[in-house]
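Deliverable D2.4 — example input (structure tokens):
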């Protein structure tokens, strides 16, 4: 059981080999932009959008606003984790001084500000806060697991 736990932690914190895995954070970033950039159902109906998009929009906006706001945290936690995970040496310059931090935090801000250009949508300080907290939590947890794994002397993959 312990070796399985160690292997799982190692898998989650060590950068994968090669550049092919870069597709995961890039793809997830695009996915986030799509689901957070969909206009409200009424807007889509006014422009005679495909019924599939109207139904998807209805599903996305069919739960309470507080839950929509709260959903930003796990969505952006995953974003932060994926970007820090593919970094080969994420902590050489410090916890937040790396490319993964720049990309994830910048995108968290961009994603919220982009809503100013979507009909019937608007940027929200609460959403931005949850985006940034989600990314920061991912980085802190990854950093903690990384340091913990070094103290446990897990074998490092190269």
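Example output (designed residues):
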């Amino acid at each position: 059981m312990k070796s399985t736990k160690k292997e799982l932690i190692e898998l989650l914190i060590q950068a994968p080999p090669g550049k092919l895995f870069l597709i995961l954070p890039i793809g997830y970033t695009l996915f986030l932009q799509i689901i957070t950039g969909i206009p409200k159902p009424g807007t889509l109906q006014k422009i005679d959008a495909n019924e599939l998009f109207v139904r998807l929009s209805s599903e996305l906006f069919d739960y309470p606003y507080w839950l929509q706001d709260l959903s930003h945290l796990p969505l952006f936690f995953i974003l932060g984790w994926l970007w820090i995970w593919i970094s080969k040496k994420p902590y050489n310059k410090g916890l937040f001084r790396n490319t993964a931090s720049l990309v994830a935090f910048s995108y968290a801000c961009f994603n919220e500000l982009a809503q100013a250009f979507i009909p019937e949508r608007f940027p929200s300080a609460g959403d931005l806060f949850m985006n940034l907290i989600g990314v920061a939590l991912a980085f802190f947890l990854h950093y903690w697991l990384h340091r913990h794994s070094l103290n446990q002397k897990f074998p490092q993959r190269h």
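The chain has one domain: 2-38+64-151.
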